[in-house]
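A favour, since you know our structure tokens better than I do. Go ahead and set the record down below.
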Amino acid sequence: MTGLTSATSQRPRSRGAYVPEQPATHVSVRQGNRSERRGIQAHVAPRDASTTTYQGLLIATAEQTFLDLSGLMSLVELVVLGDSLVRKARTTPDDLVRAAAAFRGRGARLARRAAGLVRRGVDSPMESRLRLLVLAGLPEPAVNFTVRDEEGAVLMRFDLSYPRLKVIIEYDGRQHARDDAQWGRDIHRREELDRLGWRLIIVRAEDIYGRPDQTLSRVQAALRARGAKNLTRQAPD
């Protein structure tokens, strides 16, 4: 059977990218009968499906994987996938936009919308989710903006920010909550940000999943305090 691997089972990885955990491995066949196996979900690949080879196996390209999964995933999770594919250098935002524009299969409308929201430089799935939360009616923040010294060396890099207003939004997973050395570096960094006139907003997982509307209000208030005008927002989906 010639197959197109669309996603892995159990672990949230697809060609090094991120997909939601799921019980089945999705495999597409070019033609013929689809074999039934426990843990395998078989599909018939479109005739124009884009393929490549990996370790001797015929598999879907990154763009085709994105399109295949557009009929199975939510907008947020599809953007998370797209951001991670770009981060792993499997594709580019422009390539995803072009592929989605030509796609006519299941989930085509969602694929086009999600492709338009994929960005370079997003470092993690939670940063993708935070960026999409902020985009619920607020201006789009810059991704991975860097502050450099007079000689051009990088001093700091921010997950999401509004450089003109000097507002930073960062996700904190607290993996280093009990790391005294990291805690000290965090304190020094925040003092340096204060000295440089930046406002830092820290967002945790519960702020994204449990109180998104309150989180948006925090960002909106910070932007207004820095002089932003005509800000409107809507409650996130």
Remarks:
- The domain at 125-225 is CATH 3.40.960.10 (Endonuclease; Chain A).
- Residues 124 and 218 are 22 Å apart (CA to CA).
- Residues 1-13 have pLDDT under 50 and may be disordered.
